[in-house]
Design goal:
The chain is an alpha+beta fold. The chain has two domains: 33 residues, no CATH class; 99 residues, Roll (Ubiquitin-like (UB roll)). Helix content is 33%, strand content 22%. A five-stranded mixed sheet has the order 2-1-5-3-4, with helices on one face.
């Protein structure tokens, strides 16, 4: 990540004293939460293209996209709770196959396509995340039976 502090930033500091605090906190969050990265990579989440830090697990990438909802979410961060389960597509032998994984244990890779999220993962700004229960709950869940009759 580039350490750029442009002239416009200095102007903002003069006109907005809280800018320095926000800038400093955002730098601290980057350094404390995420694995070191040089660039953002592009992945697809529920059909929407997003940029996330390279060399990071998917759950950390989701936290990069929506820090409030993931930070306060019900996740163990070590793979024991399965609340961070995601479904993704991968091409193998010329065929596109859907796989499931725990986002706290899987690193994001360029071009990855995540097709379904656990009901526990809520991403602000990602259409379909937390807004459509059909995308988030398994078909055999108790809620799915009542949903089908409505």
């Amino acid at each position: 990540m580039e350490n750029v502090f442009p002239f416009t930033t200095l102007l903002c500091l003069y006109f907005c004293p809280y800018f320095l605090l926000v800038y400093t906190l955002s730098r601290m969050i980057d350094e404390d939460l995420f694995e070191p990265y040089q660039k953002l990579i592009e992945i697809e989440v529920l059909g929407q293209r997003v940029k996330v830090p390279e060399n990071n697990k998917l759950l950390r990438c989701f936290q990069y996209l929506s820090i409030e909802t993931i930070s306060y979410g019900d996740f163990c961060w070590n793979g024991e709770c399965t609340n961070c389960q995601v479904w993704y597509q991968i091409e193998e032998d010329g065929e596109v196959k859907e796989r499931t994984t725990l986002s706290c244990r899987t690193k994001a890779s360029e071009g990855m396509s995540i097709t379904k999220l656990s009901k526990h993962i809520r991403l602000k700004g990602v259409i379909g995340s937390g807004e459509s229960k059909e995308l988030l709950e398994p078909e055999d869940s108790p809620d799915s039976k009542t949903r089908q009759t409505c």
